[in-house]
Amino acid sequence: MASGKKRKKRDFHHISRGWNAVLNVVAGVFAFLCVFPFLFVVIISLTDEKTLARDGYRLLPAQWSLEAYRFIFRTSDTLLRSYGVTIAVTVIGTVISLILISLYAYAISRKSFRYRRFFSIFAILTMLFNGGMIPTYMVVSQLLGLKDTIWALILPLAMNAFYIMILRTFYSTSVPDAIVESAKIDGAGEFYTFLKIVLPLSLPGLATIGLFSTLGYWNDWFNALLYIDNPNLVPLQSMLMRIESSIQFIQQNSQNSSMSLAALQSIPQDTSRMAMVVLATLPIIFAYPFFQRYFVQGLTVGAVKE
């Protein structure tokens, strides 16, 4: 009877070569469909502007051109400075975010913590209600005095209630209470237990939250719009938006502009937009391989295990 159950279990998990090939093809097609939009954006950014206006969007344009990238890199000093600001904000912000979120989530995940219910409700309420844009601006710029500082790009995004709930669930399901209790019996303090025992077991959850925080900081442009007037502190996303706004302004007011018609037509409007997308997206793509090892495990937190 037992052997029959084991045979059925093996048959259930076994996949024939034919079905394995079909599933691989389906997965490959799905992966290609996910990657294709970005590849198409790269192709458009490398297309000549006049060819794009004449022939439309094509996979194989009649004429290739790097004019869109040349147009953006004419302000190379500004672009490199914006890249530096964005990288600094992303690295520092992700580290601070991981420290704050991991400590908060660990505290409310422990049943021995007396005020875990209060702080859990407090975090959840921030997901449902907020003070609004004007009070937030007054707190950041006037009360805290962070306007025109790099901290105005870091601190407003450092805490996220949704990430706290994810990591709290990970701690509750993946860190056994017996391990924590045994460390306390051996005389370990709370911080030692957290640093030496809990964190090594929580790498998948931390990697997932770290990736989310990295994406949030890298793609943020709204805080720069609100709090940054100093051109030396403008991040990449905000700087690219300003370039696009300048192009649109020149195009829309070409009749009142002192520039010649030929110079106005030479501005790569559509291809430069795609080049901006490539410049803003390509660096963050390289962050995925560093998190990929733990990312799937972090997403399946709380799943039923056999």
TrEMBL record:
Positions of transmembrane segments: 21-46, 83-106, 118-138, 150-171, 191-218, 274-291
Q: Which CDD domains match?
A: TM_PBP2
Q: Which GO terms describe its biological process?
A: transmembrane transport
Q: How does it sit in the membrane?
A: Multi-pass membrane protein
Which keywords has UniProt assigned to this entry?
A: Cell membrane, Membrane, Transmembrane, Transmembrane helix, Transport
- Compartment annotation: Cell membrane
| Domain of life assignment | Bacteria
SUPFAM superfamilies for this protein = MetI-like
Q: Which Gene3D superfamilies match?
A: MetI-like
Give any Gene Ontology cellular component.
Answer: plasma membrane
Every ABC transmembrane type-1 domain range:
83-288
InterPro entries, sorted: MetI-like (IPR000515), MetI-like_sf (IPR035906)
Primary localisation category? membrane
Q: Which family does it belong to?
A: Belongs to the binding-protein-dependent transport system permease family.
Protein name per UniProt: Sugar ABC transporter permease
